[in-house]
């Protein structure tokens, strides 16, 4: 049934995936907006001497909730990735939606004074959302011969744009709704997505295609045994094709080690900005008053969504120009972000926010496309879930101690840390250089083999 589905129906499923990922996956990364609503309700205000103005103790406790939720996103990948390779995307999605809704219910009834369940609630929301996120990448296998990078970019950008979910909730909260009613609505939405997990809706597309799809000129050669772009594609090249190896051999390869190092430092920088943007606006550049900082945070949450509109063009960019060019562009955006976060003018911060939105969205697109394209669809769950998930857990676990060190000083600001992250970004240009060199080697090897075959 899936093989005969019309292209328009497949694209409709991609759009449905984007909606589901947007509203029920990485919502915890919109913490900066939700924390405003929680502060407004007085969550953890009892930790302050003056519970009307807030304090660093309240900020640290709220950040601990964010850190737990952020940590459980990659932890969820480590759990669901191997399970998805065995149980399939349909099972993973269904169970994940149950976990997501349970987390929303727990969040709805949590209270810092009488029932402090925010940390486990954040963990359940993140873990369940990660299952929903990973289950959608099977769709990319149906576009392996032409729009592989584009579909990966659309799904990933929807995940990144899921920060808008809490932005919308905060706006509704400002009009008088309680966080309890908002999270009850989120739980109901998760159950709606659970009900949609059926063949009538998905028409077999929650399972991988049964035959090779990569047969054509769009990627310049034959597909791998699992039907994905691989050895001859401009994105990866023959020297980066690891799809035919056992998982243990894959994780020992230079291609995987390079991905792990890249993932560790890009995810750390991403989580750092998402978790500290409110405090950075308060303390950086000689400090700002609370109302000014809150306004900048709202602009931040709006501008990082602009990457949604730009993502289709970036997907086509990596389909056309290759993985190395995409990695170099994304890394340059990361360097620009941290170079501008320490500045005073609002306009330069707006540029930083927009650059960060693209850096965050496009980086995750690159990592999933690289994981599936280089290592194959059959081990995508393990490579991305366990491999990238492990380093992402380390990056997430480092967030709370980072915040504690910075905020624990007599004159807290993030400028020194931001400059250090800029330096890390410069070093990270080594990954696109590695991918470029392996791609060139692969093309030269392929050309030599073709010439030898023609001569014979």
From TrEMBL:
GO MF, one term, reads: transmembrane transporter activity
Instruction: Give the record's membrane topology.
Output: Multi-pass membrane protein
Q: What superkingdom does the record give?
A: Eukaryota
Question: Which Gene3D superfamilies does the entry mention?
Answer: MFS general substrate transporter like domains (1.20.1250.20)
Enumerate the InterPro entries for this protein.
Answer: MFS, MFS_trans_sf, SLC43A_AATransporter
Localization terms from the record: Membrane
Keyword Membrane set for record = yes
Indicate the transmembrane segments per the record.
Answer: 12-38, 59-79, 91-110, 117-139, 177-196, 255-276, 296-315, 322-341, 347-363, 383-407, 419-435
- Cellular component, GO, one term: membrane
Q: Which UniProt keywords apply?
A: Membrane, Transmembrane, Transmembrane helix, Transport
User: What family classification does the UniProt entry report for this protein?
Assistant: Belongs to the SLC43A transporter (TC 2.A.1.44) family.
Q: What is this protein called?
A: Major facilitator superfamily
> Where does this protein come from, organism-wise?
Micromonas commoda (strain RCC299 / NOUM17 / CCMP2709) (Picoplanktonic green alga)
Query: What lineage is this protein's organism placed in?
Result: Eukaryota, Viridiplantae, Chlorophyta, Mamiellophyceae, Mamiellales
């Amino acid at each position: 049934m899936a093989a005969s589905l019309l292209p328009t129906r497949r694209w409709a499923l991609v759009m449905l995936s984007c909606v589901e990922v947007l509203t029920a996956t990485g919502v915890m990364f919109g913490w900066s907006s939700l924390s405003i609503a929680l502060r407004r309700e007085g969550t953890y205000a009892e930790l302050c001497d003056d519970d009307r103005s807030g304090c660093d103790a309240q900020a640290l406790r709220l950040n601990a909730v964010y850190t737990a939720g952020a940590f459980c996103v990659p932890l969820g990948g480590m759990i669901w990735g191997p399970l998805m390779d065995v149980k399939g995307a349909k099972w993973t999605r269904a169970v994940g939606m149950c976990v997501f809704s349970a987390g929303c219910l727990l969040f709805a009834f949590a209270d810092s004074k009488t029932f402090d369940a925010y940390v486990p609630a954040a963990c359940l929301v993140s873990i369940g959302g990660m299952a929903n996120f990973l289950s959608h990448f099977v769709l990319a296998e149906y576009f392996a011969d032409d729009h592989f990078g584009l579909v990966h970019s659309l799904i990933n950008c929807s995940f990144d744009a899921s920060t808008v979910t809490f932005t919308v909730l905060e706006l509704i909260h400002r009009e008088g709704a309680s966080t309890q009613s908002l999270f009850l609505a989120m739980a109901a939405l998760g159950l709606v997505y659970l009900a949609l997990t059926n063949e009538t809706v998905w028409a077999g597309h929650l399972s991988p295609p049964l035959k090779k799809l990569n047969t054509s000129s769009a990627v310049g050669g034959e597909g791998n045994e699992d039907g994905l772009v691989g050895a001859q594609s401009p994105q990866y090249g023959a020297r980066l094709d690891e799809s035919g190896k056992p998982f243990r051999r894959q994780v020992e390869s230079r291609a995987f080690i390079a991905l792990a190092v890249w993932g560790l430092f890009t995810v750390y920088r991403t989580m750092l900005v998402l978790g500290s943007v409110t405090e950075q606006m308060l303390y950086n550049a000689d400090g700002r008053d609370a109302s000014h900082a809150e306004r900048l945070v709202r602009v931040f949450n709006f501008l990082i969504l602009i990457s949604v509109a730009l993502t289709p063009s970036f997907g086509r960019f990596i389909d056309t120009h290759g993985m190395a060019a995409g990695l170099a562009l994304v890394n340059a955006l990361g360097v620009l972000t941290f170079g501008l976060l320490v500045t005073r003018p609002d306009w330069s911060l707006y540029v930083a926010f927009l650059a960060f939105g693209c850096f965050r969205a496009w980086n995750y697109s690159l990592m999933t496309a690289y994981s599936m394209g280089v290592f194959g669809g059959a081990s995508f769950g393990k490579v991305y879930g366990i491999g990238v998930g492990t380093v992402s857990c380390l990056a997430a676990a480092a967030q709370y101690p980072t915040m504690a060190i910075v905020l624990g000083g007599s004159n807290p600001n993030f400028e020194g840390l931001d400059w250090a992250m800029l330096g890390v970004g410069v070093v990270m240009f080594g990954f696109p250089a590695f991918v470029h060199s392996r791609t060139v080697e692969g093309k030269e090897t392929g050309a030599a083999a073709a010439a030898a075959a023609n001569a014979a």
